[in-house]
């Protein structure tokens, strides 16, 4: 069970070649592969479309799973790269920071991404310090080492790659690393054992290496799947349940009304009791009134009683908040 | 006096590159990946190429470390397999060098991938593994051919091929765990 989560997909590569790469990876023992499309944050089109083909179109070996991933090149974190929109149209989202600022913000914030995939053939002007690295790893973000960058690269690229890879391995102590290929050509793909040896020469222990090929990428895949299909990362919705089809009543308005109500009910089924919009509004008004009355009477009454009311109001407000969150998004 | 200990790497040469279709009938992937090497490639040329690669990657120190022990014990062009001997303390260097080679070291050489399929402490184990793999590949190729044309071959060889393929993939990841044990044994005697 090995994973290769980075096979570059360019619209210019002919399909037979891509199929050949997938077949070769499968014959080497990789079972889950992710085809990756690269976008640049500074020139992101307004409508991002996912053009990666999936197995019915793409001929693949039967036991291989194909995923679709997006790699976003980011140089300025202030750019607002619309990560949520991107992550919806792909199976997983990776970030390739090119500057220290972007790298740090990817390590410390940005909940949407699951992989930080640096271009290790460059020389970075900063050190890979253990603190941001380990914060990222503890948050569940994995660092990707793409070995094909070394295999395909020339002298300086290879030197930089080795230096950067060693720095990352040293900073994380080998934890939270994902090894993938990023091979633009079939020839740069290597078997899992070969990759392990290479990384072993560069300082990644055998155990950690195995983890980086199997356990860690599996975690990424499962997590990303949960983010998309699950409910708040706690419950995985395997089958959302189907409602029996209700025959339409006469009058278009009423049917439309029932539809919207149904949606609200569906979303609130998971825990909190359903509250209708009207009821919510009433509660809100009451809370406001109470707050005003409380403010006026606060000067007369003692502190203890007023604080009690306050907490009551707070709890009410909190329930309101939770209901508003659960509303369907259009 | 302590015996000098070696590692024997069993290496397959694979040809994953898609060639422009010359034959009309499509070749199954297994056959294409494991095609024979060109006849101009022999042991000496290969050894020289590996040495050069070690020198490029690891410099004088690395090439000096493996210089004495590096030797090709067996080379078969038909099955694209060879057994490489390296000293035990530096076999990783030679292996890494093999991973960085992308071409047959001859004139107009085809692109290829050197894949180490087994690391062993004795040459006998490496040999046995080589034979086992060659047999497996034959079975797999026959099965794929059978799927493409007729099911006659399937009738002859049965459905056992599928299990074999699964075993092969298991072996790949487990290669090293198994090896380390068995070389310990072999070293003792």
UniProtKB/TrEMBL annotation, chain A:
Residues 247-330 are annotated as: Disordered. Residues 290-316 have a biased composition (Low complexity). GO terms for cellular component: nucleolar ribonuclease P complex. Pfam families: RNase_P_p30. Keywords: tRNA processing. GO terms for molecular function: RNA binding. Residues 247-257 have a biased composition (Basic and acidic residues). Gene3D superfamilies: Metal-dependent hydrolases (3.20.20.140). InterPro entries: Pol/histidinol_Pase-like, RNase_P_p30. One of its GO terms (biological process) is tRNA processing. It is found in: Nucleus. Signal peptide: none annotated. Belongs to the eukaryotic/archaeal RNase P protein component 3 family. This is Uncharacterized protein. It comes from Hymenoscyphus albidus. The lineage of its organism: Eukaryota, Fungi, Dikarya, Ascomycota, Pezizomycotina.
Automatic annotation (TrEMBL), chain B:
It comes from the Eukaryota. Its main location: nucleus. It catalyses: Endonucleolytic cleavage of RNA, removing 5'-extranucleotides from tRNA precursor. Coiled coil: none annotated. The keyword Cytoplasm does not apply. Its EC number is 3.1.26.5. SUPFAM superfamilies: Rnp2-like. Keywords: Hydrolase, Nucleus, tRNA processing. One of its GO terms (biological process) is tRNA 5'-leader removal. GO terms for cellular component: multimeric ribonuclease P complex; nucleolus; ribonuclease MRP complex. It is found in: Nucleus. PANTHER family: RIBONUCLEASE P PROTEIN SUBUNIT P14, RIBONUCLEASE P_MRP PROTEIN SUBUNIT POP5. Belongs to the eukaryotic/archaeal RNase P protein component 2 family. Component of ribonuclease P, a protein complex that generates mature tRNA molecules by cleaving their 5'-ends. Also a component of RNase MRP, which cleaves pre-rRNA sequences. This is Ribonuclease P/MRP protein subunit POP5. It comes from Hymenoscyphus albidus. The lineage of its organism: Eukaryota, Fungi, Dikarya, Ascomycota, Pezizomycotina.
């Amino acid at each position: 069970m090995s994973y290769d989560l980075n096979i570059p997909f360019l619209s210019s590569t002919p399909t037979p070649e891509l199929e050949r790469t997938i077949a070769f990876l499968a014959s080497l023992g990789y079972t889950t592969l992710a085809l990756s499309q690269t976008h640049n944050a500074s020139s992101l089109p307004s409508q991002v479309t996912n053009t990666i083909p999936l197995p019915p179109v793409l001929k693949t070996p039967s036991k291989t799973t194909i995923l679709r991933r997006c790699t976003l090149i980011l140089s300025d974190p202030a750019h607002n790269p619309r990560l949520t929109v991107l992550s919806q149209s792909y199976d997983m989202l990776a970030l390739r920071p090119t500057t220290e600022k972007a790298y740090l913000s990817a390590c410390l914030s940005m909940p949407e991404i699951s992989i930080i995939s640096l271009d290790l053939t460059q020389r970075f002007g900063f050190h890979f310090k253990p603190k941001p690295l380990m914060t990222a790893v503890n948050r569940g973000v994995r660092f990707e080492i793409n070995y094909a960058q070394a295999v395909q690269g020339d002298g300086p690229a290879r030197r930089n790659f080795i230096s950067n890879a060693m720095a990352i391995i040293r900073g994380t102590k080998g934890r939270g690393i994902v090894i993938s290929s990023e091979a633009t050509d079939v020839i740069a793909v290597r078997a899992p054992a070969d990759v392990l040896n290479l990384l072993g020469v560069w300082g990644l222990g055998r155990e950690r290496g195995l983890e980086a090929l199997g356990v860690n990428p599996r975690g990424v895949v499962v997590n990303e799947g949960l983010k998309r299909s699950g409910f708040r990362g706690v419950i995985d919705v395997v089958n959302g349940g189907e409602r029996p089809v209700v025959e339409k009543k006469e009058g278009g308005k009423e049917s439309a009304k029932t539809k919207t109500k149904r949606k609200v009910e569906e979303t609130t089924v998971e825990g909190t009791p359903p509250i209708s919009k009207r009821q919510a509004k009433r509660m809100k008004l009451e809370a406001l009134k109470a707050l005003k009355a409380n403010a006026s009477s606060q000067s007369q009454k003692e502190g203890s009683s007023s604080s009690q009311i306050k907490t009551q109001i707070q709890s009410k407000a909190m329930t309101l908040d939770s209901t508003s969150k659960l509303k369907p998004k259009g | 006096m302590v015996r000098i200990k070696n590692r024997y790497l069993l290496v397959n040469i694979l040809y994953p590159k898609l060639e422009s279709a010359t034959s009309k009938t499509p070749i199954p992937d297994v056959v294409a990946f494991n095609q024979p090497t060109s006849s101009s490639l022999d042991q000496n040329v290969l050894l020289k190429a590996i040495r050069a690669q070690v020198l490029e990657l690891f410099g004088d120190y690395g090439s000096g470390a493996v210089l004495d022990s590096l030797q090709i014990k067996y080379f078969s062009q038909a099955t694209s397999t060879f057994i490489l001997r390296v000293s035990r303390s530096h076999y990783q260097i030679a292996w890494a060098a093999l991973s960085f080679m992308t071409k047959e070291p001859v004139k107009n050489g085809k692109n290829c991938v050197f894949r180490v399929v087994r690391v062993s402490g004795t040459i006998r184990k490496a040999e046995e593994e080589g034979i086992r793999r060659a047999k497996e590949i034959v079975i797999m190729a026959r099965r794929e051919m059978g799927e493409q044309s007729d099911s006659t071959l399937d009738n002859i060889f049965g459905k056992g091929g599928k299990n074999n393929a699964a075993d092969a993939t298991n072996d790949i990841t487990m290669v090293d765990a198994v090896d380390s044990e068995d070389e310990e044994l072999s070293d003792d005697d």
